[in-house]
Specification:
- With 543 residues, the chain is of the alpha/beta class.
- The protein folds into 3 domains: 3-181, 3-Layer(aba) Sandwich (Alpha-D-Glucose-1,6-Bisphosphate, Chain A, domain 3); 185-407, Alpha-D-Glucose-1,6-Bisphosphate, Chain A, domain 3, CATH 3.40.120.10; 409-542, TATA-Binding Protein.
- Strands 2-6-5-3-4-9-8 form a 7-stranded mixed β-sheet, with helices on both faces.
- A hairpin with a 2-residue loop joins strand 8 (167-171) and strand 9 (174-179).
- The longest helix has 18 residues, at 422-439.
- It is globular.
- The structure holds 1-O-phosphono-alpha-D-glucopyranose (G1P) and zinc ion (ZN).
- Zinc ion (ZN) is lined by residues 92, 113-114, 277-279, 281-282.
Length: 543
């Protein structure tokens, strides 16, 4: 085995964002870009000599070649063992699980999640720590620091590994174990949930449509839902992963999963609909004629988790990201358990999960998960829903109506203004930040500002402080608007405006969310002067 030491210089823009490093695929393919970043991950975590890693990705364009480079670099840097999914494929939650059950020193996940894939689309890479979760800021800061001082990287001069072949291979002394990407994950799901009850549900004629959006969950969903649980063949659609996700946008929301929405709103709709994203960690939940917002789904799952064997003793606590609606807080209050509010990004749940403070957590961006792994998990959410429906034998819309009657309804929506020039977005943001102290008491249309603050988080487990995590404007009566700039985009800036209002009047629980939120939307536009700064009067995407 020949080891080459290649001289290089730092490349700008290798700062990990909300979830690892995401760039245009072509940028990742530029000379030394991937190599610099991989070497910086290795250097940032104190080297990989003698270490073991899980490696896999969502199968998007460049996944296969990037993995070959990573394998050669790991070997050259002295790694002992790499566990890699067959054909380089692993869903993000499956990768998290493999890190945990094999006790590896972490893993590298190749994905840009719900961003499109292809030569002109997006690529990404992130390092997960030995707990199976995305590296916390302390680690990503070290990785970033390494990218700014890098002088050389190491790589072997060896042929590609045949990743279609299950079993053991090697590069010099480094062992490479190619494993079935689905098997261990499927076994975990069977431990968590009441599979016999779900089988009985399907046997009774219950119909599901699971849209894998041409992405990684296709093989997982086909194996678990159709082969093991007995959903009718063809229940999983768009089930074959493709490097460009069928030229689609693998983001499970009503805009990009419109095919699913149309099917679920049709007169002959199945009983349950779901979709997952590029790397399998997100979920979208629908019933016949109803879309369930991620915030409501989180609340409902928390309220009924005890239906599943894994959670039958109850929940330790729950956590949600700050922009996620407070619906789950109301459930926690009734259950008498703690509810945490964290910054956006799954990495902030890691400490709470590790410390046994929470069992279930979630984000408004279609991410839900639990202690079973340290990533959000799309199929897990689908299976927990199915377990709950198998136990209660109620429809999704009846479950939601009951939930709102019991707890009130947190009307919720997110408005995204995409691809704004960064300077304009930054100007809007800094002006609003400066204006926060003066907003209290001012009225905007029907609403008066009760409080305006910038969110900061003190991690209750390790005491770390995260500043500048979003601007919150709360109105008298409890409605609120939150503004953040996205940390996962690859072009320009995306302004996210999150809107929420609690309704407890039984007569007002079934409105159109955009109508129920109209006053908050108007007030937020007036306060942030969105049109003045961005030239946009309305959002590009509403979820
Ligand atoms: C987005 C979501 C956030 C999620 C992240 C990674 O980040 O909003 O909840 O954790 O993707 O999947 P953002 O682009 O808002 O920074
Ligand atoms: Zn994802």
């Amino acid at each position: 085995m020949t080891i080459l030491t290649i001289e290089t210089t730092p490349i700008e823009g290798q700062k990990p964002g909300t979830s690892g490093l995401r760039k245009k695929t072509k940028v990742f393919m530029e000379k030394n870009f991937l190599e610099n970043y991989v070497q910086s991950i290795f250097d940032g975590i104190g080297g990989v000599e003698g270490k073991s890693l899980v490696v896999g990705g969502d199968g998007r364009y460049f996944n296969d070649s990037a993995i070959q480079i990573i394998l050669r670099m790991a070997a050259a840097n002295g790694a002992a063992l790499i566990i890699v999914g067959q054909n380089g494929l692993l869903s993000t939650p499956a990768a998290s699980h493999l890190i945990r059950i094999n006790g590896t020193d972490g893993g590298l996940i190749l994905s840009a999640s719900h961003n499109p894939g292809g030569p002109d689309a997006d690529f990404g890479l992130k390092y997960n720590t030995p707990n199976g979760g995305p590296a916390a800021e302390g680690v990503t800061d070290k990785i970033f620091a390494a990218t700014t001082t890098i002088k050389e990287y190491k790589i072997t001069h060896t042929p590609d590994i045949d990743l279609s072949k299950l079993g053991n291979q090697a590069i010099g002394p480094m062992k490479i174990k190619v494993i079935d990407p689905v098997a261990d994950y499927a076994a975990l799901m069977e431990e968590l949930f009441d599979f016999p009850a779900i089988k009985t549900l399907f046997a009774s004629g219950f119909r599901i449509r699971f849209d894998a959006m041409h992405a990684i969950t296709g093989p997982y969903a086909t194996e678990i839902l159709e082969k093991t649980l007995g959903a009718a063949p063809g229940s999983v659609v768009n089930a074959v992963p493709s490097p460009t996700f069928g030229n689609g946008h693998p983001d499970p929301n009503p805009i990009w999963a419109k095919e699913l929405v149309d099917a679920m709103m049709a007169p002959d709709a199945p009983d349950f609909g779901a979709a997952s994203d590029g790397d399998g960690d997100r979920n979208m939940i629908m019933g016949r004629g109803i879309y369930v917002t991620p915030s409501d789904s989180l609340a409902l799952l928390a309220a009924h988790a005890r239906c599943a064997p894994a959670y039958e003793d109850g929940l330790l606590g729950v956590a949600r990201s700050m922009p996620t609606s407070a619906a789950v807080d109301r459930v926690a209050e009734r259950l008498g358990i703690e509810a945490f509010e964290t910054p956006t990004g799954w990495k902030f749940f890691g400490n709470l999960l590790d410390a046994g403070r929470v069992t279930i957590c979630g984000e408004e961006s279609a991410g839900t998960g639990s202690t079973h792994v340290r990533e959000k998990d799309g199929l897990w959410a689908v299976l927990l829903w199915l377990n709950i429906l198998a136990t209660t034998r109620k429809s999704v819309s009846d479950m939601m109506a009951q939930h709102w009657a019991d707890y009130g309804r947190n009307y919720y929506s997110r408005h995204d203004f995409e691809d704004i020039e960064s300077e304009k977005a930054n100007a809007l943001f800094s002006t609003l930040r400066d204006n926060l102290p003066s907003l209290k008491g001012q009225s905007f249309g029907a609403l008066t500002v009760a409080e305006a603050t910038e969110f900061a988080y003190d991690d209750p487990v390790d005491g770390s402080h995260s500043a500048a995590q979003g601007l919150i404007i709360t109105f008298n009566g409890g409605a609120r608007a939150v503004l953040r700039l996205s940390g996962t985009g690859t072009v320009g800036a995306t302004l996210r405006l999150y809107l929420e209002a609690l309704e407890t009047d039984p007569a007002l629980l079934h409105q159109d969310p955009q109508e129920a939120l109209a006053d908050v939307i108007d007030a937020a536009h007036a306060i942030a002067r969105i049109e003045e700064f961005t030239g946009r009067s309305g959002p590009d995407v509403i979820t």
